[in-house]
């Protein structure tokens, strides 16, 4: 993640709009943010955190975000432009705030807003998310850190990054989990626990299944024993053991077989009795059928006379039905003719009334429809001609009105056009005057810009020269110290030559110095303070390295001084002031040049606009003349049409049209009524002919005779059905008696019911015994199967219990519940923490001259708390470790800063779970607790962070740091005392 630009309005200490250009600050690499205490240095980085996460560091309420010095209409808002993995984003956020109502007095609460955009290569904003929570979630995903973690990796708040040093395993774990992405190991532990639980569940299922099979077998055998009713088995219970359950079944099997034999004998007896009962029932059924048929034949013979009478009535009704139907149709046709004649009389009267109302006939005249139609046609044609004349007159009047409105509108446009030309002339005159003012001020803007770049480079080189001179002084002292140390080591080495030589002497061998073979009094081989060759070589390398470092720095100082010339000894403040003065002149010239370009473009646009207005004026004058001609022609046409219309009354025309139409509809009604009368008369003639034919064919003398024998449809259907039923019954009885005539039947009916009762009792006894035997056999088979299933299940899962025990031990160990209290994820995080402490110790060694070293410890402490991520400090003066809390205030700051820088080193190299790189680091204060030497060492550590490719900003008011590091942003109180404003290279 890399910040590019920050804009804040009415935020914190800044009532106005301020901008920070981090791309410009990246050229400095390592810089300070300076300003008086309380001016608002930390506010800049509060704004960064607010833009990304919607909150203020330290969980402060967002109500504090709005500047107390801002005006009531000033809107508090923050905008941060940043990039992640080559893609640039811009986030804007505003807190909930009050503003004045747009209408009336009082205020309204404006809700918090947030929006996130992705910037295309051409700078166009593409929406990504909107709303406070969605934007916060999207920014968290892009950055790869939550707000509290961002404060420990990118923003190191004032006095708060020491918490990471003093935290325990429980507090340190969440940050490390997020940074190093150990969710995989946490998931692996959960999977181990899940598998162990699954194995426990499976073992329990196996045990339950075996127990279920054993219990089922026992219950089945108990049922078999109870079903045999054997005196020897009465009250005997089967054992729980599988072997004993099998033995118990062997005792029951003979009794079950005996019961099965008794059931087979009873089955044969029941079958024989059933066959005898069925044969007797067949004979009894035939005997009963013959008696029933004979009784029905006697009944049908008695009813024969009545059925014949019904048959004659049905025949007469069928002959009378056509005569009655034809008479009904004739009556209906006569009624329709009478109705049609009445309708014709009514229609003729209505037509006469309409014609009288139109003055086309007298009130008492009976009008013929054909003559009325002709008269109405002539009247309608005359009305149409009059209506067309009135419409033409109305259209001409409308055209005249529109032509007059067009002339008026063109007059108005001509007046506005003249005013626009005058306004444009005045505006062009103002821009010509402004062009003359800006030309001399914009001259030389490019040359000034080049001089500014040269001046900035010399100021930066002068700063590097001052830092190099400071390093040179330290290296001079280091060289002297190394040479003195080498001289002391060399003296000790020479003094220890005799003991070393004595250590090589052997009895009988000649001395390499004097040649003697006897060594009566050799020097002690091991004296305190003896220096060997390895110590001497180490001292020589240290001295050579100090001399080499001094030579390199001396050459660098000489190169920088030669490049600066006379400015090498000129005060840095003087050079900076001159550069700021030149920068102000260049910015003023650049602003004038930019405005001059805008003025020139505006003049060109004004000239083009003047040409357009001239052309438009000519067109307006021509259009005005054409509109006048159109108006005159319209007035002439209106006058001519008015003369044609004369005294015609439009209202009378409107009333006469519907009356003519209504009279026309009355003519059509008369014609329809005449046609209906003719049709009805024809229908009467046809119905009379059909009635005469039907009466002749029926054989009846007249209509009254036919109606006397007529029957309704249901009555005729009932007579016909009764006759058909009687005929079918006679045929059925005669056929049945003929079939039974050849069958030999006994004189008396056999008692089939008694035989069936005896057979049913035998079948019931057989079924009861058979059912009991089947239940016993089924229960016995189920018992044997349950015993076999229990053994099979137990045999198939013999190794499952061992597997469960091993899985539980591994899960407990990886979950941190074992003796060490260190789980798998903590073990992995411990390795990452060791990487962090290794990187931190590089910085801490520089800051403390190698005295302190951070080290991870597995000590679980007391009360079984979580362990594995605790830290201790190894003090080289005592050789013993101790808790970080025992360090002094300045030492704690050094250790905390080193740990924060080490964490930043590892994270900036991609050492996070999300794979994100963080290309910026901001450290807020704390340097005031360091002595000069420790301060120099802290600055060296920051230089090392910058050398790794990260931009580093330091918020400080310590003068020594401001002298060693370039100023990137300066926070200055406003002259009116109402808040602060920004200055410096990074402020825009």
Shape: flat
Residue share in β-strands: 5-15%
Mean pLDDT over the full residue set? 80
Residue windows where pLDDT falls under 50 for at least 5 positions: 860-864, 910-914
Q: Provide the CATH topology of the domain at 1-154 and 959-988.
A: Rossmann fold
CATH superfamily of the domain at 1-154 and 959-988: P-loop containing nucleotide triphosphate hydrolases
Tell me the name of the CATH class of the domain at 1-154 and 959-988: Alpha Beta
The largest sheet, given as strand count, sense and whether it forms a barrel, is: 6 strands, antiparallel
CATH architecture of the domain at 1-154 and 959-988: 3-Layer(aba) Sandwich
Structural class category: alpha+beta
Count of alpha/pi helices: 23
* Cα radius of gyration in angstroms: 61 Å
What fraction, in percent, of the residue positions are helical? 55-70%
CA(first)-CA(last) distance: 22 Å
- Total beta strand runs: 17
Strand order of the largest sheet: 2-1-4-5-8-9
């Amino acid at each position: 993640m890399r910040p590019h630009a920050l804009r804040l309005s009415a935020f914190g200490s800044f009532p106005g709009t301020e901008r920070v250009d981090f791309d410009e600050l990246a050229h400095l690499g390592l810089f300070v943010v300076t300003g008086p205490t309380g001016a608002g240095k930390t506010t800049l980085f509060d704004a960064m955190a607010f833009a990304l996460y919607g909150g203020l560091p330290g969980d402060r309420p967002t109500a504090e975000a709005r500047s107390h010095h801002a005006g009531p209409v000033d809107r508090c808002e923050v905008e941060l432009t940043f990039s992640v993995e080559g893609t640039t984003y811009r986030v804007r956020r505003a807190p909930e705030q009050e503003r004045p109502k747009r209408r009336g007095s009082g205020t309204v609460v404006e809700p918090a807003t947030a929006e996130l955009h992705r910037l295309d290569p051409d700078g166009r904003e593409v929406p990504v998310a909107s709303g406070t929570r969605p934007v916060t979630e999207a920014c968290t995903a892009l950055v790869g850190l939550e707000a509290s973690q961002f404060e420990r990796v990118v923003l190191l708040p004032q006095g708060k990054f020491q918490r990471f040093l003093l935290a325990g395993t429980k507090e340190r774990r969440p940050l490390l989990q997020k940074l190093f992405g150990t969710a995989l190991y946490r998931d692996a532990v959960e999977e181990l626990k899940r598998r162990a639980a699954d194995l426990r569940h499976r073992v329990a299922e196996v045990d339950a299944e075996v127990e279920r099979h054993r219990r089922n077998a026992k219950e089945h055998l108990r049922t078999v024993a109870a079903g045999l009713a054997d005196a020897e088995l009465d009250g005997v219970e089967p054992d729980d053991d599988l072997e004993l359950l099998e033995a118990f079944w062997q005792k029951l099997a003979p009794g079950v077989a005996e019961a099965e034999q008794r059931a087979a004998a009873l089955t044969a007896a029941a079958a024989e009795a059933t066959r005898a009962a069925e044969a007797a029932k067949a004979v009894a059924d035939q005997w009963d059928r013959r008696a029933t048929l004979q009784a029905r034949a006697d009944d049908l013979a008695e009813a024969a006379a009545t059925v014949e009478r019904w048959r004659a009535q049905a025949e007469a009704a069928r002959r009378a039905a056509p005569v009655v139907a034809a008479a009904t149709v004739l009556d209906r046709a006569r009624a329709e003719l009478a109705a049609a004649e009445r309708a014709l009389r009514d229609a003729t009267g209505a037509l006469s009334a309409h014609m009288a109302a139109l003055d086309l006939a007298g009130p008492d005249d009976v009008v013929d429809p054909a003559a009325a139609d002709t008269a109405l046609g002539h009247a309608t044609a005359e009305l149409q001609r009059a209506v067309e004349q009135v419409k033409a007159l109305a259209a001409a009047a409308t055209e005249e009105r529109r032509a007059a409105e067009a002339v008026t509108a063109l007059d108005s446009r001509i007046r506005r056009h003249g005013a626009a030309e005058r306004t444009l002339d005045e505006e062009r005159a103002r821009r010509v005057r402004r062009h003359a003012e800006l030309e001399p001020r914009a001259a030389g803007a490019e040359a000034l810009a080049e001089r500014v770049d040269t001046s900035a480079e010399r100021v930066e080189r002068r700063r590097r020269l001052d830092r190099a001179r400071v390093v040179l002084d330290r290296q001079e002292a280091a060289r002297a110290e190394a040479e003195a140390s080498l001289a002391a080591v060399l003296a000790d080495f020479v003094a220890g030559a005799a003991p070393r030589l004595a250590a090589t002497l052997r009895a009988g061998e000649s001395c390499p110095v004097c040649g003697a073979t006897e060594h009566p009094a050799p020097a002690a081989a091991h004296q305190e303070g003896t220096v060997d060759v390895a110590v001497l070589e180490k001292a020589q390398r240290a001295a050579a390295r100090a001399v080499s470092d001094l030579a390199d720095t001396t050459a660098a100082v000489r190169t920088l001084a030669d490049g600066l010339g006379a400015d090498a000894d000129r005060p840095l403040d003087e050079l900076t002031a001159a550069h700021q003065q030149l920068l102000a002149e260049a910015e003023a010239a650049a602003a004038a040049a930019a405005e001059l370009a805008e003025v020139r473009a505006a003049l060109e646009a004004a000239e083009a606009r003047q040409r357009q207005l001239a052309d438009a004026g000519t067109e307006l004058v021509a259009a005005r003349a054409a509109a006048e001609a159109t108006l005159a022609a319209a007035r002439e046409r209106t006058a001519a049409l008015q003369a044609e219309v004369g005294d015609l009354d439009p209202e009378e025309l409107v009333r006469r049209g519907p009356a003519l139409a209504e009279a026309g509809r009355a003519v059509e009604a008369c014609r329809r009524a005449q046609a209906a009368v003719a049709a009805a008369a024809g229908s009467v003639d046809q119905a009379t002919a059909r009635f005469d034919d039907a009466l002749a064919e029926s054989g009846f003398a007249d209509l009254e005779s036919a109606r006397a024998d007529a029957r309704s449809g249901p009555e005729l259907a009932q007579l016909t059905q009764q006759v058909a039923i009687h005929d079918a019954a006679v045929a059925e009885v005669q056929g049945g008696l003929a079939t039974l005539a050849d069958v030999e039947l006994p004189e008396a009916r056999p008692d089939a019911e008694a035989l069936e009762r005896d057979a049913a009792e035998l079948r019931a006894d057989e079924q009861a015994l058979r059912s009991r035997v089947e239940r016993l056999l089924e229960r016995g088979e189920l018992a044997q199967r349950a015993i076999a299933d229990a053994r099979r299940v137990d045999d198939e899962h013999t190794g499952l219990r061992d597997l469960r025990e091993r899985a539980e031990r591994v899960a407990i160990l990886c979950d941190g519940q074992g003796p060490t209290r260190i789980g798998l994820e903590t073990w992995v995080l411990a390795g990452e923490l060791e990487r962090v402490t290794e990187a931190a110790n590089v910085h801490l060694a520089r800051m403390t001259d190698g005295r302190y070293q951070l080290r991870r410890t597995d000590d679980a402490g007391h009360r079984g708390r979580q362990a594995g991520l605790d830290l201790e400090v190894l003090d080289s003066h005592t050789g013993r470790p101790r808790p970080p809390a025992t360090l002094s205030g300045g030492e704690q700051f050094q250790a905390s800063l080193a740990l924060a820088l080490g964490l930043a080193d590892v994270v900036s190299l991609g050492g996070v779970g999300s794979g994100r790189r963080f290309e910026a680091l901001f450290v807020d204060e704390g340097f005031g607790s360091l002595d000069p030497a420790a301060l120099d060492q802290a600055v060296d550590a920051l230089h090392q962070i910058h050398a790794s490719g990260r931009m580093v900003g330091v918020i400080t008011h310590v003068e020594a740091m401001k002298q060693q590091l370039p100023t990137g942003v300066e926070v200055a109180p406003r002259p009116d005392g109402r808040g602060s404003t920004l200055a410096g290279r990074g402020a825009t």
